[in-house]
Amino acid sequence: MPAALVTGASRGIGRAVAEQFAADGYDVAVNYRSSDSAAREVVDTIERETDQSALAVQADVADPDAVEACVDDAVDAFGSLDHVVNNAGINQHRYTPELSPEDFQRLLNINVVGTFAVTKAALPHLEDSSVSEGPSVINLSSRLAYSGADYEPHYATSKVGIIGLTKSHALEFGPTIRVNAIAPGFIETDMTDATTSEEAKERKRQDVIPVGRLGKPEDIGQAAAYLRDASFVTGETLNVNGGQRMQ
């Protein structure tokens, strides 16, 4: 069976990607940092609702040693690693006057360096993949990479960095491995629920999203499945935002 590793997969977008891949016939390693019970719930759901195997693998993506062990555990369990989805990340609503250099660096370490570390650890296994569509890496960026964000400049900066890393790795790893990114718009997750009022959500629905609704994690799962299988697409960033920002 082909296999995938999805980081930050215990909830939200990562969970939706993991469940989409399993529904499509992939064994899935469900990475998490601290939510052991939530990750095991994802594993149980996959194994109950599909014919695929799943494995919860703990690692803080900012810790290179933990990342190496996480990738090794996935390969040991499934015998191969064919696709990686770098979803793990954090955000933090903080304006520059109250944002410390330490907080800025910590977010970059998780969002950008973590993406790099997971890809590097997975690289020799992806090179050995024999899946028909070819192995791939899919990185999660954000619409804020284009617009910026006055309330979280370090988060927006990290998402710009992910696009640059995506293009660089597409050049470096081709033709063997494809590397693409997804830039979600406003997706309803636990993270956005914690920072966005219902009034603000309704304003977005009515005023700035042409399709008239907020995104769902499943929308990103479908986009990831497309990039996984799109054998003539690499180095691209797929905007999934309901038309909120048109390139």
Question: How would a textbook summarize the main sheet?
Answer: 7 strands, parallel
Number of helices: 9
Proportion of beta-strand residues: 5-15%
- Radius of gyration, Cα only, in angstroms? 17 Å
Number of strands: 7
Q: Structural class, judged by helices and strands?
A: alpha/beta
Gross CATH architecture: 3-Layer(aba) Sandwich
Low-confidence stretches: none
What is the CATH domain class? Alpha Beta
The ordered string of helix (H) and strand (E) elements is EHEHEHEHEHHEHHHE
What is the H level of CATH, i.e. the homologous superfamily?
NAD(P)-binding Rossmann-like Domain
Categorize the overall geometry.
globular
Family: Belongs to the short-chain dehydrogenases/reductases (SDR) family.
GO molecular function: oxidoreductase activity
Keywords: Oxidoreductase
Protein name: 3-oxoacyl-[acyl-carrier protein] reductase
